[in-house]
Amino acid sequence: MNFQTYSDSDLQGLIEKSRTHPRLRAAKIFQEPSNSKYQTLFNAMQPESYLPPHAHYHPEVWMPIRGWFILGTFDESGEIREVLSLTKKGTVYAEIPAHVYHTAISMDKDSVFMNVNPGPYDKDNSKISAPWAPQEDSAETEDQWRNYFEDMQNRIIRIYCN
After folding, report:
1. Rounded distance, CA 56 to CA 39, Å?
2. Fewest CB within a 10 Å sphere: which of 8, 40, 83, 136?
3. Buried b vs exposed e over 37-73: b needs ≥16 C-beta within 10 Å?
C-alpha cells in the first residue's frame, strides 16, 4: 500500500505560497485529474483573495483545515441566498449542490479548506462563471472586480452577523 500524505510542513508551504501569489490563494490537487473518480484539493486563502462566484456541474464538499471561511450562495440574478460559517470549531462540513453559485471569503489569515469533487476533473468543464460577477482574469479592470468583491464581502458579512 502506498499512502499519499501531506504533512503540516507541506501545508505551511502552501500557506506561504498563498501569501505571495497574485490571487492570494494557492491550491494543492491530490489526484491525477484525467483518471480519478474524485478530486481532492487543499486551498490556502488569504482574507483579501477574491474567489469569483461560480457554480459546478456537480456537488462540491468543503471542509475547513485551518482558519475560518464564510461561504455564500447566490440565486441566478446574483442575490445572496444563504451564508454559512465554516471553521474547525463550528461547522466542519458543507456540501454545495450542483448548479448553485457560491463563493468563499477567508475571514482569517492563512485559512485552508479542503474540497472534494466527483471526478475525473475536466478543467474546461468544471466551473460555471457567474454572469453577473466580474472574473479576475476577464476584460474588467482590477478596480471593477475589487469594488464588486468589497461590496459582496460586506453584504455577506452583514447577513452573517444578523
Report:
1. 13
2. 8
3. eebbebbbbbeebbbbbbbbeeebbbbbbbbbbbbbb
